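Lab notebook, page 48
Experiment: co-folding of the full assembly
Goal: obtain a model of how the components sit together before planning crosslinking
Operator: M.T.
Materials (sequences as entered):
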Amino acid sequence: MVKKKIAKVLAFRYKILAAILILLAGGLVLLPKYQKHEGIKPEELLSNTISPERYMTTDRLAHIIINQDPSFILIDVRDEKSFASYSLPNAINIPLKKLFDEDSEGYLNQNQFDVVLFSNDHFYADQAWILCNRLGYKHMRVLKGGINQWYTTIINPMKPAENMAAAEYELYTTRKAASMFFGVVYPEQVKVEAPKIVKEAPKKVITIEKKKKAEAEGGC
Amino acid sequence: MGPLIPNGVIPYEWDNIIAILIGIAFGFVLEASGFSSSRKLAGVFYGYDFAVLKVFFTAALVAVIGVYYMDYLGFLDINQLYVHPTYLWGAIIGGIIMGVGFVAGGFCPGTSLCAVAIGKIDAIVYVGGIMVGIFIFSELYPLFQPIYEGYFYGNVTLEDSLGINPYWFVFIFSIIAIVAFVISDMVQKRVKKIFY
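Observation: model returned without errors.
Model output:
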């Protein structure tokens, strides 16, 4: 009895399989669509964002540049005009608008170098950082404070007040040395020795009284 | 999560081993379902056996539906899958040559090796022919190179070139498959039965 029933069902087996296939394919069409996000997952992006490795201090960057560390690429995300007027040594200019050009992808989407983004502040660099991170680009860093911070800490470090800790003084001397590397000249470096004024003994003037010529006497 | 190897779920070093395992399983299934017989394979052209059409069409259908469901559920990123590059005229000419060989010899390259494994003499001759063909192709490669490397369209899919919604495409594709199965069954009933 049971066998007969099974045989009855199995007679339709290909039709059942065909119906299942069509149902499944139709299900794909009818499923509610949702927008898939591209790039890395939001959780990953968030954990990258709050990671302390995101920022690089100017002191560390100065150290890297002075030691000529080849594993870093500096990328200036400001526009061409600002880049032309001043930038960090060996920096590459990729303005924020051209971030996803084909030419720039080679610098950003790679696995060999650490990329340090910077702008005047770290505002635009942060935007570039977020965009690149979402696409899953690796080894992206932002120069904390950007060029302004670079200027106030490395190029023109503030002299610590007298009541500050010794560490501050050490930091100051390091920064000062770094700034000298980048071409800043300090007044004490160019101490010009004041010319010695050799006092010459006043000459004694010995007046030799000449014998007065005898005045022509007489005459007629 | 998927594909497993590019995303590091399975280490990269395993891919050759997995390929061998899948190959063994594929060969076993081909042999077990009678695909090492050139008569069964050629049946699709003479209308007395449509197993080849049904098997490969169903395989494609199951795979495409499965891939799109896995993509929808987030188990698999469809954009990371390998898409075979399209060399249009190379594919057309190669397809014609392969089709002629299929009708004439009764094997496709995969099933011929499968039949060699069980010692069929016609398959051994067929594989010998494949080797001769490879030799001729390699020797005359400079002549064929413009066709072989030309007409390159990139790694395109039907979705890209037709601009069709992939889900609708899968649905239409499965309907076409079912219709093809029904028609092939009708043809098979009309054709004179052949014992093989």
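Interpretation: The mean pLDDT of chain B is 89.
Next step: discuss with group before ordering constructs.
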